[in-house]
Amino acid sequence: MLTKVPFCFLHTIELCIFEVTIKRMSVTIKGDHGFDNKPSIEAKALRINLNPYIYGTFAEIGAGQEVARHFFKAGGSSGTIAKTISAYDKNFSDTIYGEEVDGRYVTETRLDKMMSHEMRLLKKRIPKEDQTEKMFFTLANTVATIDFAKKFRGHGWMGIRFQKNPEAPYNQIVLHVRFHQSEARLQQEALGFMGVNLVYGAFYKHYNPKKLLRYLYDNIDIDAIEIDTINFSGPEFKNVDNRLMSLQLIRNGMTEAVMFDSDGNNVLPARVLYKKNILALRGSFRPVTKVNIDMFEKSYEIFTKEENVDENKTKVIFEITLSNLRAQGEIDEKDFMDRAKLLCSLGHTVMISNFKEYYRLVDYFSHYTKEQVGLAMGVNNFVDIFDEQYYKDLSGGILEAFGKMFYNNLKVYLYPIRNEKNGDITDSNNLKLHPRMKDFYKFFKYNSKIVDIFDYEESHLNIFSRTILQKIKKNEKGWEEDLPVGIAEMIKKNKMFSYKPKN
Known about the structure:
This protein folds into two domains: 39-240, CinA-like (Maf protein); 270-498, Rossmann fold (3-Layer(aba) Sandwich). 38% of the residues lie in helices and 20% in strands. The protein has helices at 7-25, 41-50, 67-74, 90-97, 108-125, 128-131, 184-204, 209-215, 242-251, 269-273, 290-303, 333-345, 358-366, 379-385, 397-405, 435-446, 465-474, 487-494; strands spanning 54-62, 81-85, 135-144, 155-163, 170-179, 225-233, 257-260, 266-267, 277-282, 314-321, 326-327, 330-331, 349-353, 373-378, 411-415, 417-418, 425-426, 450-452. The strands form four sheets. The chain has an eight-stranded mixed sheet with strand order 8-7-13-10-9-14-15-18, with helices on both faces.
């Protein structure tokens, strides 16, 4: 009489064989060079499937129905997948997950409802005696791929809620993707790969979120799909600062710009900028000074009085370029966090970008809004815009750059600067440009594309951030009064910008 072998025991044997195979593949010989040997999508799915303790559901709506397929295809999925569901029709989706206030389906709120609903069902339908040995998860996504006219590239939300150990609290990873391929099939394929990478990373790479980010692109061309927002939450990620994760997205080339609000949460740029009037201020903000705040307040007052600007639909963005985050060629993460925390403490939305040139920043905004955009900047930064060396990579040179920059009725709000040597004040009427640029500049000046800020605080013209920074580092007196209220106290308390209190 044949004895029936427990299914979980067979899974254990298969897992052992799988691990032995991996170990055998790790043998090296003379002449080998070290490299990151990435498991295939099939290997990742199989490893998950062969683990008798990992158990969960897949909920995929819209075009995102590729993730679960990889786990079925890998084999051994009966011990891992409790259920898959695709509430494709909106009526079915609303019946299961509830209706959205805005009537949209590809949203973060819809994703959260999906994960919450499926996890409740999972816990409810699995016998309690079995729950003590299971690590539950729910993978959900809501996606819209490229449309028939190929005008809308497509985007989606994806997330996983999971346990590290049986009966442990839940952790969560949520991300937003934007597609760059021109075929729906290729977009679905890339999303399927990323979904498997996300499940695998959640269970096997959660201890190092920075590496987990890079592993999300395993077996995917980085140009195929963009991650522009990601948030980690739960006990396993209690020490993770999502603003630093945003920075990693840019460092890794996964996106060109990220945003976070005053609470330190990563926010979707499209949600912040969509159909908004935008006033942007670029700077190093190292640290943020009274000059920066005066520039913001005075330019905002002018901007909101423009004929085409609705103050109720206006968003102010403090933007820092990646080049302003570098110290000796590398990004100084602490320095970045210092600047970000100070700006957030003042209640501002912060944007980190990879846009070295202003025209790229404006072009980025144009993807989300056709409303009026304003740039507030100092005279010195404005003069740099007219330097032709920044546009050598463009076939149309500076003409192409300015065409993109001043498209959609852009206006520049110019804050004057005082010469440190002779005390002269420079504004749009007396700034110095290369002779070849003078007539070019006059075109924008005479067409009211450049607006002077006249009611500035003259005493603030003596404030220079580089001078303040040196005083902070040397612990000299007098720098505190040049900063907005509460900023100096934060710098001292948190020892920002190499501040060292005197003993």
